[in-house]
């Protein structure tokens, strides 16, 4: 099998490429996914078995004032890759988001649950999903990503633990912290199953199992770092107003994996425990302030 990974400069792509050293990797400077001609030429020349699209506009708040730009990347960019993959017979794995849902549910969203994004970011990602699904591709929705290869909520909490006595974190948003290493492994497994014909096209939910709030996640991070979790104090979304609306509930269901013969991803706590050594590597030093801390309710997303 041969692989093409777009958006290769992002946090998730770093973990995908660590497991696929033979893959062709292209970052933003090498490929503008909004350029249909360039996308078609690249996919046509590489002729991969699987394309993993990690190229995305993930600045959620900026999308509110630059929706056309965000949707061009997240919607048209995905459509360009879907067309090129279809034309060459490649499998496309499109990374998407929980933001395609309204976020007001009380039970996990099934893969076929009605969508209803409340913000610009979600609308653009939904447009990309529709193009990929119409072309027979695969959509993998994820959320609350963290990893060693980029800025994210977990690393922010580690930094704040070393610089603040207490940290206020929102306790009224529920979701699933997801380690990029676990998601990368699942994307590769799905690509292999798709090529083998054992995984049907459609939407899958790529999040670690279980659920918590940002407050619950922060307390777990502090505890695993050997700090007192009581230093994390609960607050509300209203205390941290942001341009883009945040989903109050974005827990995703995982039933479709069983249809592909794969178990859902493991519990988020187990993943976080295993991830912590990489996130607290002294050479990386995430506790050293760099440009000031992100808001404590930040999605932590900057790029896949």
Descriptors:
single chain; RmlD-like-bd; EC 1.1.1.133; two-stranded parallel ribbon; 10 helices; six-stranded parallel beta sheet; dTDP_dehydrorham_reduct; Rossmann fold; 12 strands; disordered C terminus; 304 residues; alpha/beta; 38% helix; oxidoreductase
Give your account of this protein's structure.
- This protein is of the alpha/beta class.
- The protein has a domain at 3-151 and 176-210 and 250-266: Rossmann fold, CATH 3.40.50.720.
- 38% of the residues lie in helices and 14% in strands.
- It is built from ten helices and twelve strands.
- The strands form four sheets. A six-stranded parallel sheet has the order 2-1-3-4-5-10, sandwiched between helices.
- Strand 1 (3-6), helix 1 and strand 2 form a beta-alpha-beta unit.
- Residues 282-303 have low confidence and may be disordered.
- It comes from Streptomyces smaragdinus.
- This is dTDP-4-dehydrorhamnose reductase.
- Residues 1-277 form the RmlD-like substrate binding domain.
- Pfam families: RmlD_sub_bind.
- Its EC number is 1.1.1.133.
């Amino acid at each position: 099998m041969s692989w093409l990974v777009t958006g290769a400069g992002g946090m998730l792509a770093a973990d995908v490429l660590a497991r696929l050293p033979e893959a062709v990797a292209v970052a933003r400077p090498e490929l503008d996914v909004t350029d249909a001609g360039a996308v078609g030429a690249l996919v046509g020349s590489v002729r991969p078995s699987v394309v993993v699209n990690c190229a995305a506009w993930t600045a959620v708040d900026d999308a509110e004032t630059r929706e056309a730009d965000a949707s061009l990347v997240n919607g048209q960019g995905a459509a360009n890759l879907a067309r090129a993959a279809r034309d060459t017979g490649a499998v496309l794995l499109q990374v998407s988001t929980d933001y395609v849902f309204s976020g007001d549910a009380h039970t996990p969203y099934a893969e076929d649950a009605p969508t209803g994004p409340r913000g610009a970011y979600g609308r653009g990602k939904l447009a990309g999903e529709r193009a990929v699904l119409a072309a027979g591709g695969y959509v993998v929705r994820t959320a609350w990503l963290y990893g060693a290869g980029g800025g994210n909520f977990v690393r922010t909490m580690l930094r704040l633990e070393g610089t603040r006595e207490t940290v206020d974190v929102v306790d009224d948003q529920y979701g699933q912290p997801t380690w990029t290493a676990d998601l990368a492994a699942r994307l590769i497994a799905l690509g292999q199953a798709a090529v083998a014909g054992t995984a049907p096209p459609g939407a899958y939910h790529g999040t670690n199992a279980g659920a918590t709030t940002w407050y619950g996640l922060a307390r777990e991070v502090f505890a695993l770092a050997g700090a007192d979790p009581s230093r994390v104090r609960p607050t509300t979304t209203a205390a941290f107003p942001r341009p883009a609306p945040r989903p109050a509930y974005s827990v995703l269901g995982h039933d479709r994996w069983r249809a592909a013969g794969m178990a859902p991803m493991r519990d988020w706590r187990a993943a976080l425990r295993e991830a912590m050594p990489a996130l607290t590597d002294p050479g990386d030093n995430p506790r050293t302030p760099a440009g000031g801390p992100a808001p404590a309710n930040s999605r932590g997303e900057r790029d896949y």
